[in-house]
Specification:
alpha/beta, elongated
Length: 430
């Protein structure tokens, strides 16, 4: 399945650049096979691909239209006007050391004397109560809805988008899947189930059955207890029993090609639903939507959306010789004056002026951190220096030859000499 779709995307004429301009690259298959509904291994014929199935993809438009369309089935709900006010409550006034909120009259029950009416009271009124004249529905432009439907139809022909939505199409022969009109006359659900199995939808049907689970929230008690995933959508031209036959198969839905609804084509606002076409419905697409030139015969004042760009490869366009030859040369931005920074206060600037500055600073820091190799080296050098000092002191700073003792000896000799001089003078006087 994947081999036939590697180049399948959108039809457009891609003009060559840097050479011949009349080269074209096909981006969609020209024909689609029609399979026998009761024997899918047999092909009946081929049909040309309708132009509507090769339109551009607008997921943003699909999301917007789906969001607003889904609001148009809502029913109004509102609060009863007397809710919270169905009592003869009256304030007790001031002077009784209680709040001035209205209080339920009477006695003998717990309800008597309780606050009432206020939205902060138990059983009181609702603040800003809901009303029925809320803006429930949304008006939509007809062309917007038609564009969204066209996008959803185009997305259903691309296997990557269909698989991304969760559909199991590994056994499906081809997308879009077109079968003969005999399927429209199916009367029995058992027969319809066998047809889907033969078409390669067995994995898809099993996926839907496995997904059935109880709905979270209050909806489970409001007649919608279970939820499940959605399976294929059968698009038919005439209802000769197909709706009745397929309506009871879980996840399978049917739709007329004349009344295609975006809520069915893109559930949840995500396009890429698995569609099964009947031959008549597939042929009718061109009659309904026409081509880009002819317009839509059955839709008044409407034309299929045209792609904004013929070639979406923007890089190829910009880098082509035709575009580059007329461009001005690249302008260099003006040089800005650089503020001078002080290297004494900015380590990065100092590192530029003095390579290795940061490394030296890191080593100095690690020299004071215990457990680092630098710290061990510093301690080892310190220990060697202390031992050398002790050795020197032991050798040169002990005994009579030390500086202090030599100094004191000089003082003692001078003092002795002074005493001898004084004694000699005394003897002469005598």
């Amino acid at each position: 399945l994947a081999q036939g779709y590697q180049n399948c995307h959108r039809p457009s004429l891609v003009k060559g650049f840097g050479g011949s301009t009349d080269r074209a690259m096909a981006t969609s298959r020209p024909v689609v096979s029609v399979y026998q509904f009761d024997n899918p291994s047999e092909k009946k014929c081929t049909l040309p691909m309708p132009v509507v199935l090769t339109s551009g993809l607008r997921p943003d438009l699909v999301r917007t239209v789906h969001r607003d369309m889904s609001k148009n089935k809502r029913q109004a709900y509102a609060l009863k006007k007397k809710s919270g006010y169905d009592t003869a409550a009256e304030s007790w006034g001031t002077g009784r050391a209680v709040a001035r909120i209205p209080r339920v009259p009477g006695g003998g029950t717990h309800r008597a004397g309780q606050g009432a009416f206020g939205n902060m009271c138990r059983g009181g009124g609702m603040a800003h109560p809901t009303v029925t004249w809320r803006r429930w529905h949304r008006r939509l432009n007809v062309k917007e809805k038609r564009h969204a439907v066209v996008t959803a139809l185009a997305a259903s022909t691309l296997p990557p988008l269909v698989m991304a939505r969760g559909h199991r199409i590994g056994e499906v022969s081809e997308l879009p899947l077109v079968v003969t009109d005999g399927i429209e006359s199916t009367q029995k659900t058992k027969q319809a189930y066998e047809i889907l199995r033969k078409l390669g939808c067995g994995d898809e049907l099993d996926r839907v059955l496995r997904s059935r689970k109880i709905r979270p929230g209050q909806g489970k008690s409001r007649n919608r207890r279970y939820v499940k995933r959605l399976g294929p959508l059968l698009v038919y031209a005439e209802d000769n029993g197909i709706v009745r036959a397929f309506r009871n198969i879980p996840g399978v839905e049917t739709a007329s090609v004349d009344r295609l609804n975006l809520l069915r084509l893109a559930p949840g606002g995500k396009f890429g639903r698995f569609l099964i076409w009947t031959e008549s419905a597939f042929k009718k697409l061109n009659a309904i939507y026409g081509t880009l030139k002819s317009g839509c015969p059955l839709k008044k004042n409407y034309r299929l959306p045209r792609a904004i760009m013929e070639n979406a490869d923007v890089a190829r366009l910009i880098n082509s010789d035709e575009v580059q030859s007329v461009l001005r040369p690249k302008l260099d931005p003006p040089k800005k004056a650089v503020t001078k920074k002080n290297p004494l206060s900015n380590p990065k600037v100092m590192a530029k002026l003095n390579p290795g500055f940061l490394k030296k600073r890191l080593l100095r820091k690690q020299a004071h951190e215990k457990g680092t190799p630098e710290y061990e080296l510093v301690q080892k050098a310190k220990k060697a220096r202390v031992e050398e000092s002790k050795k020197y002191n032991k050798e040169h700073k002990k005994g009579p030859n030390t500086f202090y003792k030599k100094l004191m000896t000089a003082f003692e000799a001078a003092a002795a000499k002074k005493i001898e001089t004084k004694d000699a003078e005394e003897e002469e006087e005598e």
